[in-house]
Amino acid sequence: MKILVTGGLGFIGSHTTVELQNKGYEVIIIDDLSNSTEKVLDGIVAITGKRPIFEKMDLKDRSKVEDFFKRHQDVVGVIHFAASKAVGESVEKPLLYYENNIGTLVYLLKELSKKNKSSFIFSSSCTVYGQADKMPITESAPVKTAESPYGNTKQMGEEIIRDTCMVTPGINAIALRYFNPMGAHPSAEIGELPIGVPQNLVPFITQTGMGIREQLSVFGGDYPTEDGTCIRDYIHVVDLAKAHVVALERLLNGKNQDNYEVFNVGTGKGSSVLEVIKSFEKVSGKKLNYKIVDRRPGDITSAYADTTKANKVLGWKAESTLDEAMKSAWLWEEKIRK
Ligand code: UD1
């Protein structure tokens, strides 16, 4: 069965392509290489022994999207990762984010509505909950006003899919609300490749451990948490990738109860920034140079998932521990710096 993976050369997209190929799916990747490279294909081949079809394409070009679906009428499912994801940049360039993240989603859904039946998985984020009132966060927690255009594109994306599904019974869709993905494939053949200075915690830690960055700034030590630093739910990217395959199969096998569903994808366990640093020191055997500084504007105190719905309904559960995920992130960092 043919599956289109947009953004398939990116961090989560490449790991999902591996899991799909491991289960025998034929994957076609569309990627514009704006935040990835074609070399990622070699990593995928090294792990799975199979080279996915790759088309370099900008999904903002509607005629190309139309042409793609004409050429590949046998695509039965789409996993849509392709999007811009830098929060700060989205504040500076809102229209770029709305065009990249919303425009492309609309074009894909337009093509899918021409088909009798299709399955669609959307990359959403726990950012839709903002600072939730209760922990752990369930899917019924209210969606809060977005803090950034990036966050808004995830909320709007979900609404666009929901509204489309309401009038298009042929489209079956699932939005996966990711918590904090980290780590790399245990083979260290693929992983996260941040361009420039990493914005996210884990690549900043591994780069500091490698000596590329001098010091990690821990943003805030006075939060109302046990050790004063923020709490997040860090999920191993391989567990996250597997959640996509399980969600897709739920749709392909017609097991979904509704033609639009939403699931949290996290571990259910919250870890503080200091706990993440400790995990790094444990698995790498290195002392990390860090300093507690002022809070980062826009950060929330705490976010971790209630995963009951994903566990029971999807039959999926995150398996890796924080240390295992950290070990894989460190192996990958060591490999790319060699
Ligand atoms: C961030 C985005 C979020 C997005 C997610 C996608 C912000 C404010 N939020 O989430 O919208 O969906 O990435 O990956 O950008 N930290 C440090 N020092 C650092 C980097 C991070 O102390 O150099 C801390 C942060 O304060 C936070 C935790 O580490 O407590 C995780 O940060 P990060 O990896 O940026 O993820 P989020 O802020 O959860």
TrEMBL record:
<dbReference type="Pfam" id="PF16363">
    <property type="entry name" value="GDP_Man_Dehyd"/>
</dbReference>
<comment type="subunit">
    <text>Homodimer.</text>
</comment>
<dbReference type="GO" id="GO:0003978">
    <property type="term" value="F:UDP-glucose 4-epimerase activity"/>
</dbReference>
<dbReference type="InterPro" id="IPR016040">
    <property type="entry name" value="NAD(P)-bd_dom"/>
</dbReference>
<protein>
    <recommendedName>
        <fullName>UDP-glucose 4-epimerase</fullName>
        <ecNumber>5.1.3.2</ecNumber>
    </recommendedName>
</protein>
<keyword id="KW-0119">Carbohydrate metabolism</keyword>
<feature type="domain" description="NAD(P)-binding">
    <location>
        <begin position="4"/>
        <end position="327"/>
    </location>
</feature>
<comment type="pathway">
    <text>Carbohydrate metabolism; galactose metabolism.</text>
</comment>
<comment type="similarity">
    <text>Belongs to the NAD(P)-dependent epimerase/dehydratase family.</text>
</comment>
<dbReference type="GO" id="GO:0006012">
    <property type="term" value="P:galactose metabolic process"/>
</dbReference>
<dbReference type="GO" id="GO:0005829">
    <property type="term" value="C:cytosol"/>
</dbReference>
<dbReference type="InterPro" id="IPR005886">
    <property type="entry name" value="UDP_G4E"/>
</dbReference>
<keyword id="KW-0520">NAD</keyword>
<keyword id="KW-0413">Isomerase</keyword>
<dbReference type="InterPro" id="IPR036291">
    <property type="entry name" value="NAD(P)-bd_dom_sf"/>
</dbReference>
